[in-house]
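Record passed on here:
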Amino acid sequence: MTHQKLHTKFLSNLLILVTILLLSTKCIIAQEVENETEFDYIKGSKHGPLHWGELHKEWGACNMGRIQSPIDMINPKVSILPNLGMLNKNYKPQNATLKNRGHDIQVKWEGDAGSIKINGTEYFLHQAHFHSPSEHTISGRRYDVELHLVHESAKINGKSEVAVVGVLYMIGQPNSILTEWSQYIRAMINTKAEKHVGVVDPSHIQFSGKKYYKYGGSLTVPPCTEGVTWIIDTEIRFVSMEQMNLLREAVHDHAAQNARPLQALNQREIELFGP
C-alpha cells in the first residue's frame, strides 16, 4: 500500500473514531445549554419559550417533544404508590462555583458531592439552579421559587441517565443556603460572572424526600432533552421576598421571570410516594 493510501486510511479511521466519541459523549449527559444568550423568557419574543424549538435543529424537542417539562401535578391524574421508596440521600461537602448564567443562578460542584438513590439507581449530584416563579405547579398552584438539583447516573454502555429533584418555595422566612450565598449573588448583579465559593454542603439544601411526585419528562431549558426522571418534593420550603428579588435582579435577561410555561401531560403517569 502506498504512503498516500496509508495516510488517507489513517485520516478516515481517525474521523470515524472522533465521530463515535462525539456521539457517545452526547448520549452521556442531557446537557443544558450554557450559552443562555441564545434564548429568553420574554413574552412575545422571537427567542421566547414558544420558539425555542425553531432556534436550532438540536432544540427541536422543545416544540416537538411529547414528554416535556414542567407539568402540573394534577391530583386526579396521580397514582399513589406507598411502596415507591423513600429517597436515599448521601450528599457530602465539596468545593463549588457560583455562576450567573444569564437566566439563572447556578451552583456547580467541582468534584464528588455525593448522590441520591431513586428506585435503587444511584444518581450523582452535579449542579443546582433557581427558577422564579416555580416551573412545576401542584393542582394549579404556582409557588414563588423552584430549585433544581441536577444529577446523573453512572455510565452503562456509554450512556447515563439524568434525574432532577425539584424543591418548591413560598415567601416566608429567609432561606439559610441563600443567606450564605447572598453576598456573592449580589456581586454578580447584571454580570455574567462566576465565583469560587469554597466548600458547599448539598445537605444544607433541605428537602425531605419522604413524600414526593415522580414522573418522566425533560430538561426545562434548551435543548429540552427528554428521558429525565423528575422528583418533586411535596414539602414546601421558604425564601424571603428579598432573596427571591435578588435571584431575579442578579440575572441580566430583562425578563420578569425565568419559568418555562407548563407543558402538556400527554397521558403520562404521575406517581406519588407517601408514607
User: Anything to note?
Assistant: Helices lie at 3-28, 52-55, 61-64, 176-187, 241-250. The radius of gyration is 20 Å.
